[in-house]
Amino acid sequence: MLPNHVCRKFSDALSTELALAALGLKTGGTVQQRAERLFLTKG
User: Fold this and answer.
1) Is 23 within 8 Å of 17 (Cβ atoms)?
2) Which of 7, 23, 27, 34 is deepest in the core (most CB within 10 A)?
3) pLDDT tens digits, one per residue of 18-34
């Protein structure tokens, strides 16, 4: 079993990727880049 912090990090990365895909946006890049891209959609 993976440590909680590893599972949480993986879950956060997957969540941002799925959210971007649902919006029809690019899903590649680093976790930071995906988070920034997702943040830009909030308004």
Assistant:
1) no
2) 34
3) 999 999 999 999 988 99
C-alpha distances out from residue 19 to 9, 28, 41, Å: 15, 12, 11
Separation between Cα atoms, residue 43 and residue 13, nearest integer Å:
22
Please provide residue 42's backbone torsions phi and psi, each rounded to the nearest 5 degrees: -75, 140
The alpha carbon torsion through 12, 17, 21, 26 (nearest 10 deg) reads 140
Phi/psi for 24 (5° steps) reads 75, 25
Q: Which of 4-8, 10-14, 25-29 has the highest mean pLDDT?
A: 25-29
